[in-house]
Write a structure and sequence with these properties.
Blueprint: H1 2-6, H2 25-49, H3 52-64, H4 111-137, H5 139-142, E1 148-152, E2 156-162, H6 179-192, E3 199-204, H7 218-235, E4 243-248, E5 267-273
Parallel strand pairs: 3-4
Antiparallel strand pairs: 1-2, 2-5, 3-5
Length: 284
């Protein structure tokens, strides 16, 4: 009996839950998978609802890492990628810039011509986005947001620097830019000199009579401002040969037609002339 009492007692314990050794790692993997799926469906939704300009901005971001690259850090490059010169293509010959003049008749275009039209539209969209993003990224420029108006015309992409109340582009009765006008012009030049298009500059005044020495009027003032603006752009790096037209129009084309004496009618207009035009083409 004594020997049996001295024998050791062995207790066998059965471990339940054979998967405990895996811990919670599967939860991390599952969470990563769900996050990736959510990001995927969110991207699909954005692409479905985004405008063409927003899509262009997204594409530019994934191409270069930023819509404006180095513009906010003092660099010169705002537009990158896809800047091959359009004017060298023979497909541009005798081809109108379809869709901007409001005409209901559109020419039959080749695949190459359609590609060039699309390419130019992308360049215009990129220029617009670069300017708008630069305005938003700079507090001083953001205050002048209403002073820059960008629109498409039958000639191409038009960018206007417009006087606002107490925020003029030029000194009163002068062709000298104000500090605000100089800031906007510097930003504009950084985009213009990277575009392959030629430029047309127009000076406009309001309808308030202006009479200076020797019959100096709004005609002379608008012309001098357009010429002065040309000189400033060239000084900022825009090539002289890129500017092909400089005119003064006085108050003949008011921005606010119902109020020709309003300050907004005093403005400088710069048009990126479409490369896909043919002024000499006869109607067929």
């Amino acid at each position: 009996m004594a020997e049996k009492e001295d024998q050791p007692i062995v207790v066998k314990r059965v471990k339940k839950g054979g998967h405990d050794a895996h811990g919670g790692s599967w939860k991390v993997a599952y969470a990563d998978f769900m996050t990736a799926m959510m990001a995927f469906f969110l991207l699909m939704w954005i692409l479905q609802t985004a405008t063409e300009e927003q899509k262009a901005g997204i594409a530019q971001y994934f191409t270069s890492g930023s819509i404006m690259d180095s513009s906010t850090s003092g660099g010169e490059s705002i537009l990158t990628g896809g800047m091959e010169s359009l004017e060298t293509s023979p497909a541009i010959q005798a081809m109108p810039f379809a869709g901007f003049d409001g005409s209901n008749e559109f020419p039959v275009l080749s695949v190459q011509q359609e590609r060039l039209i699309k390419k130019e539209k992308e360049l215009f969209d990129r220029a617009r986005i670069a300017l708008e993003e630069a305005m938003r990224s700079d507090g001083a420029l953001m205050e002048l947001h209403d002073s820059m108006v960008i629109s498409e015309t039958k000639e191409g992409l038009q960018i206007q620097l417009i006087d606002q109340l107490n925020q003029p582009i030029f000194m009163s009765g002068s062709d000298v830019l104000t500090p605000n006008g100089a800031r906007l012009t510097k930003l504009l030049a950084r985009v213009l000199k990277q575009m392959p298009h030629t430029l047309a500059i127009e000076g406009h005044t309001d309808a308030v009579p202006f009479v200076g020495k020797d019959g100096f009027s709004n005609w002379e003032l608008s012309s001098q401002r357009a010429l002065a603006f040309r000189r400033v752009l060239i000084g900022l790096g825009v090539k002289d040969q890129q500017i092909t037209r400089v005119v003064g129009k006085a108050s003949t084309q008011p921005y606010l037609k119902n109020d020709p004496k309003a300050p907004q009618n005093r403005r400088i207009s710069v048009t990126l002339l479409s490369l896909i035009t043919d002024d000499d083409k006869e109607d067929k």
